[in-house]
Amino acid sequence: MRAAGALWRTGDFGVVVLGTRRADALTLAGTGVAVWDALARPLHVHELVERLAAQFGAPPAIVADDLAPVLDGLVADGILEVVA
User: Which one, 26, 34, 49, 82, has the greatest CB density within 10 A?
Assistant: First the structure.
């Protein structure tokens, strides 16, 4: 899910997010915006993969492989958080 302490704004450029463990803001564009939008409510990773695969017409296995390092980075930056 989106980190509770992350600050963000949307615009024509995408989404600019300041995570809780970043000194500078990160701009999400393209598929990054789709990830951000999908995580407006908490989702299991497999739900996120299925949603993005359907949205972009891509095989779920490829989406899962591409998404894993992105999610890890966003969690490390305090932009997303893992909930149990």
Answer: 49
